[in-house]
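hey can u check if this looks right to u? its 178 residues, i copy pasted from the old doc so theres a chance i mangled smth
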Amino acid sequence: MSPSHFADELVALLPRLRRFALSLCGDRALADDLVQGACERALKARDRWEPGTRLDSWTFRILRNLWLDGIRKTRSEGVTQPVDETFDLAGEDGRRVAHASITAAAVMQGVAALPEDQKRVLTMVCIEGMSYREAADVLGTPIGTVMSRLSRARRALAEGLGMTESESPLEASDVTTP
């Protein structure tokens, strides 16, 4: 793949990378920094990417590793980052916007309360549309672990919203299978 085509493919991934970064850190500015760092590393390491493999999985893994490096550094320095819980929602009428806002806020609050490993899997599979196998590759975990974490995340989210798992806003039918 030519350098310009590689860069074009990387640019096409930016919205997905940003959503993933935001789901990891919860801070928009930090998410943008993570995406920028991941893109810089991907461009520098372009020769290590194997054509025919998924560029998105490779880049998501770079971003995740950068985030983990940042957490390790933060822990060693004893610094914490506040989580920005501001969500922008649009709608057609006030009542619908208010209901959507309450529902979305409840879902986002439920997702935020999940353990980090479940939150990452839920984001990758239900929001980013990755298959179980792709999420397992990015996270470096067995596919069964991804499946069980996703199941636990869905169950916890449904319970937190006062629903059964089949009523959850992130049903099993909404995701890509292995």
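The helical segments are 3-25, 28-44, 55-77, 94-113, 116-127, 132-139, 143-160.
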